[in-house]
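Supplementary Data S3. Sequence and structure tokens for construct A.
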Amino acid sequence: MISVNDFKTGLTIEVDGDLFTVVDFQHVKPGKGAAFVRSKLKNLRNGNTVERTFRAGENVSRAHIENRQMQYLYASGKEHTFMDTESFDQINLEDKQIKWELNFLKENMNINIMSYQGEILGINLPNSVELKVIETEPGIKGNTAQGATKNAKVETGLNVQVPLFINEGDVLLIDTREGQYISRA
């Protein structure tokens, strides 16, 4: 058990049988009445974000999430195969379980699989990945005002807004949290 007074961003808790990670929290001490903790929690099973208020000092169960290093092998239809880098065990995840993450996954990429008591919750990507541009319009010199961008399609199928100087074949550093261009790799 952990007190809500000890909340930290990224902490994983179990509330009413569901698993949540703390996205944001705020301790509130009103002039009248008891103190409370207002929190924003992300459900690890379905990805929904909820706001929840706890009384100060209330206890919740802490959930211990296991992270295993795995390698993405291949896609077969709607299933994606991952291999444990230590035991060589293989698991399959469906498209719907890793919908957002598929925008950044390349074959032979190492990632972390999150699980709770044997139930696979999803995958943790690195904060940024290197992806090659496969399709973009040529940038026309002199056609800029300031900070002009164009659309580029990378090897995983993700469309990203990039500066005009990016060409096909360039390798880009892409932020996996927002899906945005960071820089050339």
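Construct B, processed identically:
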Amino acid sequence: MSEVYAARRARLRDQCAAAGSAAALVSRPANVRYLCGAVPPGAVLLLGPVQDLMVAAEVPATPPLSPPAPPPSGSPRAEEPRLLVLPGADGDPVVAAADLAAADGAESLAVEEHDLTVARHRALGAAAPRLRLADLGRCVEQLRLVKDDEEISCMRIAGELADQALGELLESILVGRTERHLALELDRRLVDHGADGPAFPTVVAAGPNAGRPGHLPTDRRVEEGDFLSICLGADYRGYRCQVGRTFVIGPSPADWQVELYDAVFAAQRAGREALSPGRAYRDVDRVTRQVLNAAGYGDALEPCTGHGVGLEIDEDPRLTPSAMGKLDACVPVTVEPGVHLPGRGGVRIDDTLVVRPEADGGPELLTITTKELLAL
């Protein structure tokens, strides 16, 4: 994998050079991990004019390292960034990295302004006043859009783990248990099956809470006649996958529940079928919304019907009405329309898919738990 990370850093270095920056400072944790693999908490990456450094604050049980000597003039750049651990826990890796870039002769430094606080940006400028600061923008996020085979393999396993945890929960008794209890059980099952942890706070929403996006589980107990919405994800080797389903508790669903579920299911299917290379982000959102608008649920729709997923559960691209850009092959996204009716509940159906051309079988579904309306 070291060659993969080196190639990613080389692509970023080339982009920075084309924009006129001889050095770049990457501080967003997911971006640092993408470029280096496993990293110490809070570490930043400096792609410098002389050497590449990973700078981290000292953590307990980690002995401080002396500053690395720069490679001899004319020597090839080291394949792996050198690690510099700052002595003392109060040092700021961002400020230290900027100071090192200036000491190595950099005249400009591209930084991730969208990740830095105003205070940190000011401290960075004060530490190296001769450096011209430029905005790196979302260059690394754009590099992360298209996943390689290894990344997709990790996400495929994460999807399997989430499906497995959800499937096992559905075989247990649900009536009388609280949302919070069920969410904790799902988290435990994820870890038991090999996940590093949940990909995000697990959503369990019953009765009037069902279908509410990002619902935090409460002590509300599951009752017969409820809609029960569950959304969970697994984190496997840093990569994440998301699945969401809605069920009915009791012997059979009410007519209004069947009608609402069928509308959301049809919308979700339309969104999944629209995932193809070259398709505009906004088109995927549009075809999903059209179905629910036609069913009379337009006022209950959310601003986003899907998003990218990978090292973060919510990353580029965004599937929204105003999104700019088009899908590429090997881009994982979610399709997750939902409708919540205040006081009654609602339906959410979430899947994670990888965009594939029609010649390769179309979009690859990573989450395969049944989407049939089950009465549990």
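The longest helix spans residues 149-170. DSSP finds nine helices and 17 strands in the chain.
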